[in-house]
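Appendix C: a fully annotated inverse folding record. The material below is reproduced so that readers can follow the format used throughout the book. The structure is listed first as tokens, followed by the designed sequence.
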């Protein structure tokens, strides 16, 4: 039996020598043991980046996984067979909390690397998606059950915007921060109300005030 494994939002390292990455080697291992890694397959990058200094994010699927809950990483290679460093290993485990916006788009908004910060980006996207579900309820105005499998555009937008807020809140929490004996800094208040207003068109029911 083989296992289908999908790997999302991988961005190779920028190249400043004019040479683009051409292929991705998908490797499987049992853990963070360097000796355990084996190559499952090599997939061509299509299209090849026209600007190697600004490589695109890539998604991969392999049907050659050997068992459930194994670890996976990507090694990018160029036409001369030179390779980059392996990406951070990720484990293929079931996750029943869908998100409504891609990790790569959030990473671009925050100007961080989606590959190296993947877990942290997923955390804030999941938090925001849970808030969306709580706001709308068990089903939206069209009777579509939540969590969404194909979210409407407004849910995607709010997922991104709220995730950005969660990310920044980790750096500067809402409210007042004391920085000295007599000095206080006021940061932005929790702005969920504006997201709730956007999501109002999806709500099928309203609580009693």
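Designed amino acids, in order:
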């Amino acid at each position: 039996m083989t296992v289908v494994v999908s790997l999302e939002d991988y961005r190779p390292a920028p190249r400043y020598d004019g040479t683009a990455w051409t292929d991705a080697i998908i490797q499987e291992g049992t853990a963070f043991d360097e000796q355990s890694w084996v190559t499952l397959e090599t997939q061509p990058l299509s299209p090849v980046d026209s600007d190697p200094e600004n490589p695109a994010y890539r998604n991969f699927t392999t049907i050659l996984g050997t068992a459930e809950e194994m670890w996976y990483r990507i090694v990018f290679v160029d036409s001369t067979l030179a390779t980059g460093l392996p990406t951070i290993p990720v484990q293929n485990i079931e996750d029943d909390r869908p998100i409504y916006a891609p990790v790569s788009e959030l990473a671009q908004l925050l100007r961080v690397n989606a590959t190296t910060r993947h877990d942290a980006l997923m955390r804030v996207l999941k938090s925001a998606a849970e808030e969306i579900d709580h706001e709308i309820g068990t089903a939206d105005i069209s009777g579509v059950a939540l969590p969404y499998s194909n979210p409407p555009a407004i849910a995607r937008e709010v997922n991104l915007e709220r995730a950005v807020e969660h990310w920044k809140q980790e750096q500067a929490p809402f409210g007042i921060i004391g920085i000295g004996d007599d000095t206080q800094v006021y940061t932005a208040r929790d702005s969920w109300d504006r997201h709730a207003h956007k999501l109002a068109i999806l709500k099928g029911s309203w609580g009693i005030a």
